[in-house]
Amino acid sequence: MNRPTPFGFPDGRALCLLLPSLILALAFPAWASLGDNVTSVQADKAHMNGSLRSVATRNYVKHEIQVPTGQVVREFVSPDGTVFGVAWEGPFQPDLQQILGSYFEPMKQAVSAQQRHGHGPVSIETSGFVFQQGGHARNFHGRAYVPAMVPQGVDVTEIQ
Amino acid sequence: MRFLGILAGVCCLSFLAACGGSSSSSTTSTITTVGASCNPTSIMSGQTSTCTATVSGTGSFSSTVTWTASGGGTITPAGGIFTAGTVPFTTQVTITATSTQDTTKTGSTTVTVAAAGVVTSVTATCSPSSIQTGQLTACTATVQGTGNFSPNVDWSASGGTINPITGLFSSPNAGSYTVTATSQQDTSKVGTAPVNVAVGANNVLPIVVDAGPTGNYVNGAFVTVAVCTPGTTTCQTIDHVLVDTGSVGLRVLAKGTPGGELDPTAFPLQQDASGNPIGQCNQFVDGFTWGSVSIATIQMAGETASNVPIQIIGDPRVPSVPSSCTSTGGDEGNLNALGANGVLGVGTFQQDCGLGCTSGTPPNDYYSCVTATGTCTPTLMSLAQQVTNPVWVLPADNNGVVIDLPSVPSGGTTTVTGSLIFGIGTQTNNALGSATVFDTDSNAYFVTTFNGQANSCSYIDSGSNAYFFPATGYPGLKNCTGNNSAFYCPANLLTLSASNQSASNTNGASGTVAFNVGNADTLFSNNGGKNNAFSELGGSNASINGCGSFDWGLSFFYGKPNGVFTAIEKQPVTGTSYVGPFWAY
C-alpha cells in the first residue's frame, strides 16, 4: 500500500486544496477515530463494510460512510490530517467505540458522572470534548468533536 | 288522448318546419294547461310505460310536448316511452311533459318502479355475542329474497358504536345491546342480533413518580407488573418498572445483575432454528441493555398479555455482552445505570426493531448465541419473535395507552400518583375527548417549532425525564454546570412556548404548548432535595443532521386534562377515523 494520506490515496491533500468541490467515490474504507491522525485508517479497515464518499471543502474533508445496516457515519478531517469531528445517524447506534476512539471511555464516564437522575438524550460539553446524541428507538443521531482541533473558519454546526 | 299525443309527435317529426311555422306564425295562440298520464303506472325494472300528454289552449296552439323523467329510468323525449332502470328499491319516478310552444306549461304524473327482486328476510348474527367493554365483535347479515334482490344492509345499534358498513361493534359501556341490519332495498326487512357487553378488564395500572429504587430518580413514572411463566399462575411481581412511550417491549433486570429481581429461569428462552438462545443488544439513546429474549405472560392491572417476547437484562443463560454491543455506548444493565427494575416500553410500534431486523445484514441488535463457546453473532429476527409491545397483544384495550398524571406545583413535589390506562376509546375512562391527535412519521416523530426552529424529529416520551430541546441563542437557556449539566439552569423561571404539528403528509393537526423551565440546580435543592416530580425541568438537545429533536419528556405529562395518548401503529380507535401511530393530548 502507498503511505496513507489524509484522503486515503496519494496526493489527497493536494487534491483537496486544488479541487475544493471534488466528490470522490472511494471503494475502500478510509475512516479513523476522533482525535486520531487520518494516517491510522488502515487499522480501521476491518470495521467497515460499507461504501464511502468523500467531499472536500475549503477547510476540511468530509468522509461519509454508509453502513449496510442503515447507519451513516461522517468524519471530518482537518487539513493537517486530524479527525476533529464525527457525526452519525440511523436506525441503530454505530460502532461508537471505533468512531470516538480514545474519547469513548471518557464519554461513558461523563454520562455516568452526570447526575442525570433518569433517561433522555445525551449532551456532554467540556472544554476538551463535546458529545451529543438524540432520537429514540429505531432512529438515533449524534455528533462529537474536539473543539481544540476544529480548524479555523469551521462552524461546529457543520459537523453533522 | 294517447292518439292525439302520438299524432302530435308524428306531425312534428314529419313536418317539423310546418309545425314550427304553425306555432310561431300564430301570434294569437296560447297554451292554457298540459296534462300527463302513463300506463301502466307501476312497472318493474326493464319494463316500459307509455305516456301521453293532453294539451289545452286557444287559437291554433301546438300540442307538441317534450318528455322528461326524474330518474329511475329513461324516457324518449318526443315519444313518451318510459323504460324503467335498475333500482335498488321501490322508487317513485316523476314523468313530466313540457309544452314546446310555452315551456312554462307542464304536466306531471308518477310511475312506480319496483326493484326486480324482492327481499324476503334479513337475519343478523354477531360473533362473539358476548364481549367486554373495549372489545370488538363482528356482525354479519344474511339477506334472502327472490329475483335480483340487493344483499346490502345498513347497520345500526341500540347503543355503543357500530360501523354502518362493516358491522364491527364495540361499546365502552357494559349492557345488553341490539344490533340491527336493515335491508337497503327494502327497509321494512330487518334482522337483529343481541350483544352482551360485560364490564371490561380493569385497565388502570397505578403510576407512582418517586425517587425510584436508586433513590435519586427524578420524573420517573413507575408501575408494578407481574411477570408470569406462560401457561401457569407462577408470577414474579416487579415494582418500579419505568413506563416508556419512547421504546417498545418489557425489559427487566435479572437476578444476578446488581439490583436485579427477576429469576430468569422461570421463562423459556427465545431460540433460533438451531435451538440456540437469542440474545439482544437493545439500544437506548443513552446506552444499551444486554440480555436474553425470553417468553413471558405479563399481568398489568386486570390485563394479561400472554406469551410475549421480553428482554431479561443480564440473563446469565446467554453469554456475556459481545464487543459489538459494548461498542455502541454505555452499559445500562444494572440498577444504578437503569434507575429502574425494568422498562415497560409502550410506544407507537408493535415490535422494538421492526423490519430493520428481518432482512439484509443483521444489525447489532438480535444475536444468536452458542453457549458452549460463549459467542453471540448478530442474527435476523422475524417480527413475531422480536420483543413485542405488551399492549398490542392484549385481548382488548390493545390500541394504545393513556398516561394521566396530575398537575405538579411550581418548584416540584415529592411524590405523584397517576394512571397508566390501557386502550384508547375502548372504555369510559380512555376516551380521546377533546384531545388533539398528532400523527407521526415512520420514525415516530412529529414536528415541534421552538424559537423559530422547526424540529422535525420531535417526540413525546414518558421515559425521558425533562423537556429536552435545542435552544441555541435563546436568552437564559444555559446548561447547568457540574453534575447537572444535562439540564438547563436559567437564572429565573422562564415562561416558554412551542408549537406542535403532525408529521408531514398526515392529518395536519397543530397546537401551541405553553411550558416553564426552571433552574435545575434550584429545583433539585428545593424541599431539602426531597422533590422528585418537576413540571419545570428542561435540558439541552442537539440539532443534528437536519433532525432536530424536541423531546417532550415527563415534565410535559403533568396536568394534561385529557391525559397523554400513545396510539400503536395500524390500530384504529373505534368510533373515530383515527388510526395509530399518533400522539394526542
List the helices and strands and how they pair.
The complex is a heterodimer of chains A (160) and B (585).
Chain A: H1 12-18, E1 23-26, H2 41-44, E2 51-56, E3 61-66, E4 72-77, E5 83-90, H3 96-100, H4 104-113, E6 122-125, E7 130-136, E8 139-145
Antiparallel strand pairs in A: 1-2, 2-3, 3-4, 4-5, 5-8, 6-7, 7-8
Chain B: H1 2-14, H2 16-25, E1 30-39, E2 42-44, E3 48-58, E4 65-69, E5 73-75, E6 81-84, E7 91-99, E8 106-114, E9 118-127, E10 130-132, E11 137-146, E12 153-157, E13 161-162, E14 168-170, E15 175-183, E16 190-198, E17 204-209, E18 221-228, E19 235-244, E20 248-253, E21 278-284, E22 287-300, E23 303-313, H3 323-326, H4 335-338, E24 342-346, E25 366-370, E26 375-378, E27 400-404, E28 416-422, E29 437-439, E30 446-450, E31 453-460, E32 467-468, E33 494-501, E34 510-517, H5 520-525, E35 538-539, E36 551-552, E37 564-567, E38 582-584
* Computed structural class of chain A: alpha+beta
Whole-number radius of gyration of chain A? 15 Å
Strands of the biggest beta sheet of chain A: in what spatial order?
A: 1-2-3-4-5-8-7-6
C-alpha geometry of chain B: elongated
Spatial separation of the terminal alpha carbons of chain B? 73 Å
Decide which structural class fits the backbone of chain B.
mainly beta
Mean pLDDT across all amino acids of chain A: 77
Tally of DSSP helical segments of chain A: 4
Question: Count of DSSP E strands of chain B?
Answer: 38
Topology pattern of chain A, helix = H, strand = E: HEHEEEEHHEEE
* Largest protein interface, residues of each chain: A-B, 45 and 66 residues
The tally of helices of chain B reads 5
**What is the straight-line distance between the termini of chain A?**
31 Å
| Sheet with the most strands, sense and barrel status of chain B | 7 strands, mixed
* Beta fraction of chain B: 35-45%
Q: What's the assembly state of these chains?
A: heterodimer
How many extended strands of chain A?
8
* Poorly predicted segments of chain B: 1-26
In percent, how helical is the residue content of chain A?
10-25%
Strand order of the largest sheet of chain B: 34-33-30-31-36-32-35
* Binned strand content of chain A: 25-35%
